[in-house]
Amino acid sequence: MIKSAVTLNLIETMSIGPWIFWHNLEESLKKAAELGFDGVELFTASGNALDASHLRDRLDFYGLELAAVGTGAGKVLQGLTLTDPDPEIRKRAIDYIAEMIDFGAQFGAPAIIGSMQGNIPSGHSKEDALDLLADGLSQLGKIAKSAGVILIYEPLNRYESNLINTLKAGSEFLKRNQLGAIRLLADLFHMNIEEDNMAQSILDFGQYIGHVHFADSNRKPMGFGHTDMPPIAAALKEINYSGYISAEAFPYPSPDEAAKQTINQFKKYFH
């Protein structure tokens, strides 16, 4: 069964970005439950930033699941990426993500590697950067597998990363490097920029998809842009996708209205 999730950024020093709810765990979980979401996707400063037992208690109270945990704060707050030319920084990046994997695994939730993949370092080739990425993902995939969860890798659009931008490139990368514990994140915002045919890419590479980000072409909540959702929804159903459709979108025009818009659009296409 396809499930709905809403994003929640709990980092107090951040106030701008593609997350629907912000900062207040209790209030956000209450609103998510009242709207009918199945789960929440969390963005936290680290794997130790939140007390796991408290989170479990509050999720259980509201009948919600943890859909996934983002790792982007590792880059935003600490400047860590898996393709940094400095091996010490790469090690710190792996340790940071491993901590996030362990945190999410307590709830059966995967960690997502998006911005922490980095870019091609100055003076290095793309091949070198992809080798570093493959090495990091190989180590992290083994950690995730031992923790009983998958690891999610996100192809980003060309303006955010010059490594892997499409589901095709991502699936070929996983296959080539035998990264069987890792699945791809099909982010509809990034796909709108990079994919020739979003629905066809989902059909072609559906076996590699482990998570979906639900945002329109302008990264506002679905329905506020020009993404053609019917064929995309049909493709996800055809591949028997059974994971989360998670709203990583700007809180437009407000967090509450963005959440309502998202759940209404989810129900329109997936219920």
**What's the β-strand tally?**
9
General form: globular
Provide the structure class. Answer: alpha/beta
Order of helices and strands: EEHEHEHHEHEHEHHEHEH
* Mean pLDDT over all positions: 97
The biggest sheet amounts to: 8 strands, parallel, barrel
The fraction of residues assigned to DSSP E strands is: 15-25%
Question: Can you describe this structure?
Answer:
It comes from Algoriphagus confluentis. GO terms for molecular function: isomerase activity. The chain has 271 residues and is α/β, with parallel strands linked by helices. The protein has one domain: Divalent-metal-dependent TIM barrel enzymes (TIM Barrel), CATH 3.20.20. 44% of the residues lie in helices and 15% in strands. It has an eight-stranded parallel beta barrel with strand order 1-3-4-5-6-7-8-9, surrounded by six helices. Helix 4 packs parallel to helix 5 and helix 8 runs parallel beside helix 9. The model has no long low-confidence stretch (mean pLDDT 97).
In short:
This protein has 10 helices and 9 strands. The protein has 271 residues and is α/β, with parallel strands linked by helices. An 8-stranded parallel barrel has the order 1-3-4-5-6-7-8-9, surrounded by 6 helices.
